[in-house]
Amino acid sequence: MEEAHGMPATSFFPLIGLNKYVTVILVFLSWILIHKWNLRKQKGPRSWPIIGATVEQLRNYHRMHDWLVEYLSKHRTVTVDMPFTSYTYIADPVNVEHVLKTNFTNYPKGDVYRSYMHVLLGDGIFNADGELWRKQRKTASFEFASKNLRDFSAIVFREYSLKLSSILSQASMAGKVVDMQELFMRMTLDSICKVGFGVEIGTLSPDLPENSFAQAFDATNIIVTLRFIDPLWRLKRFLHVGSEALLEQSIKLVDEFTYSVIRRRKAEILEARASGKQEKIKHDILSRFIELGEADGEDGGGFGDDKSLRDVVLNFVIAGRDTTATTLSWFTYMTMAHPEVAEKLRRELRAFEVERAREEGVMIIPCGDGDEENDESSFAAAWPSSPASSATTASASWCTSTPASPRRCRLYPAVPQDPKGILEDDVLPDGRKVRAGGMVTYVPYSMGRMEYNWGADAASFRPERWINDDGAFRNASPFKFTAFQAGPRICLGKDSAYLQMKMALAILCRFYRFQLVEGHPVEYRMMTILSMAHGLKVRVTQGRLIVQLFHRAVRIIIQ
User: Fold this and answer.
1) 248-292, pLDDT tens digit by residue?
2) Distance between CA 448 and CA 442 in Å, rounded?
3) Is the pTM of this model over 0.90?
4) pLDDT tens digits, residue range 127-141?
5) Binding residues
6) For domain 54-558, which CATH number applies: 3.50.90.10, 3.40.50.720, 1.10.630.10, 3.40.50.1950?
7) Binding residues for heme
8) How far apart are CA 195 and CA 324, in angstroms?
9) Integer Cα distance of 102 and 96 in angstroms
10) Distance CA 263, CA 367 (A)
């Protein structure tokens, strides 16, 4: 049977199927158009149905911090939609204060962040909320306020700064290229292990032994950071493939080191108790948590098992090792890029040494280093202390008021982004609505480059911005200069970090000159800290001053 127009009846059915496909396509296109229409006023990267801004974010992942600078310089608040959540990035100090202080309880770390970071940070202070966080912070706060810890920290930081100086001196004489970031990481790892956990691990030894823990720790850090934009990470973990397979291998090495530290401290505590020498028990941070875990009932604080102590250790490693070493690395790089600042630092340290030596009645030897033979600032306190030791001892006072203090972290903050969860719907001070279940991230890297925060020269390296006309130090709001966070979660170890940086920099800036290896790329890599992707390869030269002083001191001893 045929239709009136002569078309076979059977040929009509394929057209029906074709029409269904056309309808589906039209519906899908309409959905996209409606979605784009609803987002027409959105300020931020291009967002698509289901996948959100994943494509653009993956394309810019290697330069994400600068990618956000581009958006946040135009819009102080930017929302980036992702498949299972959304990120609202903020750079306005008013919004930052609202999140970190005013409405602090509405912006915890949150379940999303904790699920990404738990494999590395567990229930440690950086990954905890509520009562668990408060107990850890209270214990750590008590320890950081301890005069014994502060005094011991100063001794340890001085010791490792001088060890670093010795390695640089040898490299200078041998004409070797060194990776300053690696050396800084070794110095700060040794320091936090001794100050925080009471153990000596010796990675800053002259032969620079293999450091498998540090390598595994960095690999773990990189992979968990990738989770924030990788919608397939849970599938990869389930299938045990790709980055998640590497993560499992790395975390095993990390845990082996961490549990060995815990066992060593527990054994030392038991030995001291058995011998009746309680006074020999070191009261470092780990020991405090061990004692807390041994307490009965509710006061035990949940730290009675090694897994909880493991989380404490790793959180303090990332706080005491990575952040300080990263800041020192960028500091060194910036002084190489701005030699006039490095020279000003050297002059300042020379003058400070002379003043300090006169106050203490130390013998002063005129000994120019070839730059200013007749300049009084080229004198040095040479005896009885070594010049490096003298500079280190004086550095705390020196760096309190200097315009070249480690405020370098304004442009290169150790933690470039810090995400928070959202418990309940809220409205930020600038009117932006944020929804429960999403995340708000304040961005120190971007904030340091925003003209609406720092003026037209925001992206310029100008240490003088921190000094008033009368020469006094000019502080900034912690909600504007967020390198150490602010509000109830402000960094407990800020003063300790500054002290270690001051001591190391007093030696580096006073006695050494650094030259970047030609062609060496200086780029950050994406992880929770602003680490340099390829390290910081430099050639080190040592001024004639320290060599002359060494030989003069030897002659004095011989005579």
Assistant:
1) 999 999 999 999 989 988 888 888 888 877 666 666 788 888 887
2) 12
3) no
4) 999 998 998 898 888
5) 491
6) 1.10.630.10
7) 491
8) 14
9) 9
10) 51
